[in-house]
Amino acid sequence: MQTSPQTANDATVNDTPAARRRRQAGFTLIELLVVLVILGLLAGLVGPRILSYLGGARADSARLQIENFKSALDLYAIDVGGYPTTAQGLKALMANPGGVRGWNGPYLRSNALPEDPWGSAYNYRAPGQHGAYDLYSLGADRKEGGSGDDADITSW
C-alpha cells in the first residue's frame, strides 16, 4: 500500500504561516459567552453562601470579644470590689475613672476600646437586667432585637 505524496507531506503542506495563524486564533464569541454564563452561574450560587459565612464569622467574633470583656470586668471587680457603673462604662477598663480605689489596670491589651464587628460600640449597663451587668452588641442592624445577622449578641 502506497501513501500518497499529499498524506506523507501533510505536516509540511499545512504548516504554512497562514495555517498556523488559523490554528492559533483566539476563542470564538460563542465560547466567550459560554464561559461568561458559567462564571455568572457560579457567582450566583457561591456568592450568597460566602456572604452567609461572613455574617456568622462576625457574630462569632462579637461573642469572643464579649468573653474578653467579661474576663476584664471580672478582674476589675476583683481589684475594685465591684463592676464599673453604667456612667463609668467600659472605659473604666482602660483608665482609672477617678476616685476608684484598687484600680490596677488597664484590663484590656488594646489601646482603645474595641468596637463590635459592625463598627458600633458595645453597650454596657450596670447593674444589669440579666445579672451584675449587661454587655451586648446590637448586631448588624444596630437595633434591639432581630434575628439572623441582625440578632443581638449578649453576655447573658
From TrEMBL:
Family matches, as InterPro entries: Bac_GSPG_pilin (IPR000983), N_methyl_site (IPR012902), Pilin-like (IPR045584), T2SS_protein-GspG_C (IPR013545), Type2_sec_GspG (IPR010054)
Alphabetic keyword roster: Cell inner membrane, Cell membrane, Membrane, Methylation, Transmembrane, Transmembrane helix
Pfam families hit by this protein: N_methyl, T2SSG
GO biological process terms on file: protein secretion by the type II secretion system
Chain segments annotated as transmembrane: 29-51
Single GO cellular component term: type II protein secretion system complex
Primary subcellular site in the record, as a coarse category: membrane
Signal peptide annotation: none
Domain Type II secretion system protein GspG C-terminal: 49-156
NCBIfam families listed in its UniProt record: IV_pilin_GFxxxE, typeII_sec_gspG
Annotated family: Belongs to the GSP G family.
Protein name (record): Type II secretion system core protein G
Originating organism: Inquilinus limosus
